[in-house]
Specification:
The complex is a heterodimer of chains A (364) and B (297). With 364 residues, chain A is mainly α. Helix content of chain A is 70%, strand content 2%. A two-stranded antiparallel sheet of chain A has the order 1-4. Helix content of chain B is 73%, strand content 2%. In chain B, a hairpin with a 2-residue loop joins β1 (131-133) and β2. Classes of the chains: A mainly alpha (364), B mainly alpha (297).
C-alpha cells in the first residue's frame, strides 16, 4: 500500500480483494460521496422550473433503463432492439393495476414502492421469456427476436381494449408521509425517488459485476465456448441477462408511468428502442458510467435540435415540420459517427480525462 | 370458394412483393453477413425517386422505373462505401448498430422532403378495369407487379448462378479468405452486393408504390416485415426468400380474411408474421432453406 493513499500515482494491488474494490482509491470514494450529496442537495438551493425538472427526471429514468440495456448489450453482448417494449411492460403493469382497481386506489397511491418493484419483476419475467431463443441462438438472430417482440408488444397494446388501444390511461397521484404529492411538488418528489433508485441500481449493478453472476455475463460475451468449458451455462446466462435487463426496464417504465401520470403507447415505440440503444452506444457499451453519459448527451442533443428547428422554422417558410426531420437525422448521425470514430463512447473520454488529471503533471 | 381464391390471389401479390424486398436483404446478408435494418428506407427511397421522375420531371414511368433502380444502385453502393467499408472486421454489434443509425439518417432525409409527411399516388398508366377470372378479380397493376417481380427474381437467380460477378459473390459468401486468395476483391463484392440489393429495393418500392400508393410509413414498414420472411426462408437463401415471401403473404391474407372480426381479433395479419418468427427462432432457427452453421472448437 502506498504511503500516502490520497496522492497515489498508480494503484498497486497486492491482493485479489483490493483489485475487486468498488472504488479503486479513497479519493474516488470521496468524490463519489461528494457527487451524490450534491445531486441530493442542489434542488434545495436552485429552482430550475418544472420544464427542466421534467427533463432531468426523464434523463434519470433513461439512466435506469440504459443500465439495463447496457447489462444485456454491453456486458452480455446481446443486441436488444426491443428495450422500449420492456420499459412499456413496466408502465403497462402500472396501468393494468389502474384499470382493474381504479386509478386512485390505495394500492397505486400508497403502495407505489411495491407496484414499482412488481412492475420490475413483470419486466424481468417477460425479458427472460423473450430471451428464451438465446438458449440456442447467437446475437444476430437475437436482435431479430427482440425486434419482433417490439412489434408484437405494439400490436397487443394497439389492438386491445384493456390497454385502451394505446391511448392515454391515467394513473393517480401518489401519497407520501406528508399526504398527497401535489402538482407543485410532483417533479421534485419524483426527482428524489428516481435519484434514490438510480443510486441503488447503479451500486447494485456495480456490485453484481464483481460477483460470479455478473462476471459470467462478460465471460459469455467474450467467448461462450470457453465459458461453457469453465462450467457456466451460456444459454441460461443469456436468458438471465435478458431477465435482468427486463427488470431494470420495468422499473424505469413504472417510474415513467407515475411521473407522466399516465401511460400511452407513444413512449414505447420502436423509435424509443433505437433511442435507448443510441444512448447506450454514445455513453459507451460495457461501462457503467456510460449509462449516465449516454442519456444526458442524447437528451441534451434532443433539446438543442428542438431549439434549432424552432429557430429555423421561424426564419424559413417550409411546409415540412423540421423537428420530425432533424431529430432522426441527428440521432442517426450521432450513432454512426460514434461507432466509426469513438466506438467506446463518452466513457472513454471520461477515462482519458481522468487519467490526465491523475497523472498531472507527470504525463508520459 | 371464390373468397378463398381471392385471398390466394392477393396473398400471392403481397407475397411476391415480400419476396422481392427480402431478396435484397438476403443478398446483403449472404455476401457480407450484415443485417441491413435500413432496407425499408431504401425501398421507400426507390419508390419516391420513381415518383419524382415520373410526375415532377415527366419521364414515362417505365423509363423512370429503370432510372430509379440505377439511382438506388449507386445510393446503396455509396452507403456501403462510406459507412460499412470501414467497419469490416468490427464486431457484429457495431455493424448492426450502424445500419440502425443509417435507418435514422435516411428517415430524417426523407422527412425533409414532402414525401415524409404527405401521401401521393402514381398516375394510372394501366387499364383501371380489374381483370376478372371465374369470380376472382386482380387489378392490372397487381398483375404487372407480380410479373415484374418474377422476371426480376429470375434475372437475379440467373445472375447468381451463371455470371462471373454472381459466382464471385457466392464464393465470398462461402469463404472470404479462400476467395481473396484466388483474386476476388472482397470489398468490391460487398459494394456490388449492396448495389444489387439497392436495385431490387427500388424495384420493390416502385411496385408497392403503384399498388398501395406512396406513404412513407407503409413503405418503410416493408423493411421490418422482411425479417419474418427471411427468418422463415433462411437468412442466406434466395430460394428461401421467394418461397417464404409467398407463404408469408398468404398467411397474412388468410389471417386478415378469416381471423379478423371473429373472436374480437383485429389486425392479426400485422402481428402473425412476428409470432411465427419467434416460433421459428425457437424450434428451427435456420429456416426452411438456410444453411445450418456447425461450430467446431
Amino acid at each position: 500500500m502506498a504511503s500516502n493513499r490520497w496522492l497515489a500515482t498508480g494503484n498497486y494491488c497486492t491482493t485479489y480483494g483490493e483489485e475487486q474494490r468498488i472504488f479503486a482509491t479513497s479519493l474516488d470514494r470521496t468524490f463519489m460521496c461528494l457527487f451524490i450529496v450534491i445531486l441530493f442537495a442542489w434542488p434545495l438551493l436552485f429552482d430550475v422550473g418544472s420544464k427542466y425538472m421534467l427533463v432531468i427526471d426523464n434523463i434519470l429514468i433513461a439512466v435506469i433503463a440504459v443500465i439495463g440495456l447496457n447489462l444485456v448489450t454491453g456486458f452480455a453482448g446481446l443486441i436488444s432492439i426491443g428495450h422500449a417494449a420492456f420499459v412499456g411492460i413496466g408502465a403497462y403493469t402500472i396501468s393494468s393495476f389502474a384499470t382493474v382497481l381504479g386509478d386512485r386506489h390505495m394500492f397505486i397511491t400508497h403502495g407505489w414502492p411495491l407496484t414499482i418493484v412488481l412492475a420490475g419483476c413483470m419486466g424481468g419475467g417477460v425479458g427472460a421469456l423473450v430471451g428464451l431463443p438465446a438458449m440456442r441462438l447467437k446475437h444476430l438472430y437475437l436482435a431479430i427476436a427482440t425486434l419482433s417482440f417490439q412489434m408484437i408488444f405494439e400490436w397487443v397494446v394497439n389492438f386491445m381494449d384493456f390497454f385502451n388501444q394505446g391511448q392515454f390511461i391515467p394513473v393517480g397521484r401518489v401519497h407520501w408521509v406528508t399526504g398527497e404529492v401535489g402538482r407543485s411538488d410532483h417533479y421534485i418528489f419524483w426527482y428524489y425517488v428516481i435519484l434514490v433508485l438510480v443510486v441503488l441500481v447503479s451500486f447494485g449493478v456495480r456490485n453484481l459485476l464483481r460477483t460470479r453472476y455478473g462476471r459470467c455475463l462478460v465471460a459469455v460475451r467474450d467467448n461462450d465456448r470457453a465459458a461453457d468449458a469453465m462450467g457456466m451455462h451460456p444459454g441460461f446466462t443469456k436468458v438471465y441477462a435478458f431477465g435482468l435487463a427486463g427488470f431494470f426496464a420495468g422499473v424505469a417504465g413504472a417510474l415513467h408511468a407515475y411521473l407522466s401520470r399516465g401511460v400511452g403507447i407513444d413512449s414505447f415505440t420502436l423509435h424509443y428502442s433505437i433511442n435507448y440503444l443510441a444512448m447506450a452506444i454514445v455513453g459507451g457499451l460495457g461501462t457503467l458510467n456510460g449509462a449516465f453519459w449516454g442519456p444526458v448527451a442524447i437528451k441534451v442533443l434532443d433539446l438543442q435540435v428542438e431549439r434549432l428547428s424552432e429557430w429555423a422554422g421561424n426564419h424559413l417558410t417550409t411546409a415540412t415540420n423540421l423537428t420530425t426531420a432533424l431529430r432522426p437525422l441527428s440521432f442517426g448521425l450521432v450513432i454512426v459517427l460514434f461507432l466509426m470514430f469513438e466506438p467506446r463512447g463518452i466513457a472513454n473520454w471520461w477515462r482519458i480525462a481522468r487519467s490526465y488529471v491523475k497523472l498531472w503533471p507527470f504525463r508520459y | 370458394m371464390s373468397y378463398f381464391f381471392q385471398l390466394v390471389v392477393s396473398g400471392i401479390v403481397v407475397g411476391s412483393i415480400y419476396a422481392l424486398s427480402a431478396l435484397g436483404f438476403v443478398l446483403i446478408y449472404k455476401s457480407s453477413r450484415v443485417l441491413n435494418i435500413a432496407h425499408g428506407q431504401i425501398i421507400a427511397a426507390g419508390a419516391f425517386i420513381t415518383y419524382a421522375l415520373t410526375v415532377w420531371v415527366g419521364i414515362p414511368i417505365y423509363v423512370s422505373f429503370l432510372m430509379s433502380m440505377v439511382a438506388t444502385f449507386f445510393l446503396a453502393m455509396s452507403v456501403e462505401r462510406i459507412f460499412l467499408r470501414r467497419l469490416i472486421g468490427e464486431p457484429i454489434i457495431s455493424v448492426i448498430m450502424v445500419t440502425i443509425g443509417l435507418m435514422s439518417i435516411l428517415d430524417g432525409l426523407i422527412y425533409l422532403t414532402p414525401f415524409g409527411t404527405e401521401n401521393f399516388s402514381f398516375p394510372p398508366f394501366l387499364p383501371t378495369e380489374p381483370l376478372v377470372l371465374g369470380g376472382v378479380s386482380i387489378s392490372w397493376t397487381q398483375l404487372m407487379g407480380v410479373i415484374i417481380t418474377f422476371v426480376l427474381i429470375g434475372g437475379f437467380s440467373w445472375f447468381f448462378k451463371k455470371s462471373t460477378v454472381g459466382i464471385s459473390m457466392r464464393a465470398v459468401s462461402d469463404d472470404q479468405l479462400a476467395s481473396m486468395s484466388i483474386g476476388i476483391s472482397v470489398p468490391r463484392v460487398f459494394g456490388l452486393a449492396w448495389a444489387t440489393a439497392g436495385l431490387s429495393a427500388a424495384a420493390a418500392g416502385g411496385i408497392i408504390g403503384n399498388i398501395t400508393g406512396l406513404n412513407f410509413d407503409t413503405l418503410h414498414a416493408y423493411g421490418i416485415v422482411v425479417f419474418p420472411v427471411v427468418i422463415l426462408g433462411g437468412l442466406d437463401s434466395i430460394l428461401g426468400a421467394v418461397v417464404a415471401g409467398i407463404i408469408m403473404g398468404l398467411i397474412q391474407q388468410f389471417a386478415g380474411g378469416y381471423l379478423d372480426g371473429n373472436w374480437g381479433l383485429h389486425g392479426t395479419g400485422q402481428v402473425l408474421p412476428y409470432i411465427i418468427l419467434l416460433i421459428i427462432l425457437l424450434f428451427k432457427p435456420h429456416g426452411l432453406f438456410g444453411i445450418h452453421e456447425i461450430e467446431r472448437v
